[in-house]
Specification:
This protein is an alpha+beta fold and 76 residues long. It has one domain (11-69). Helices cover 24% and strands 25% of the residues. A 4-stranded antiparallel sheet has the order 1-2-3-4. A hairpin with an 8-residue loop joins strand 3 and strand 4 (54-57).
């Protein structure tokens, strides 16, 4: 679990964030994008930028990605 205390991410932080797509997206606008926000990361749907992004602590994101890079396909 994350030990980073929750913090409200301001809209201007998200607007100024450098969003990146996976190199596996093939240039299509059909994947998720991620932005580094220091102790947090934002994840959004590249097809619908009007939706609010999901904000995760970096440790929570690392845990989530670790499940997939280790070959696991579910969290539980």
């Amino acid at each position: 679990m994350s030990t980073t205390p929750p913090r409200r991410i301001h809209a201007e932080e998200l607007q100024k964030a450098r969003w990146r797509k996976s190199s596996y997206s093939g240039g299509a606008n059909d994947c998720v994008e991620i932005a580094d926000l220091g102790a947090y990361a934002a994840v959004r749907d590249s097809k619908d930028l009007e939706l609010s992004p999901v904000i995760l602590s970096r440790s929570a994101l690392d845990d989530l990605l670790g499940h997939y890079t280790e070959g696991e396909t579910h969290v539980g």
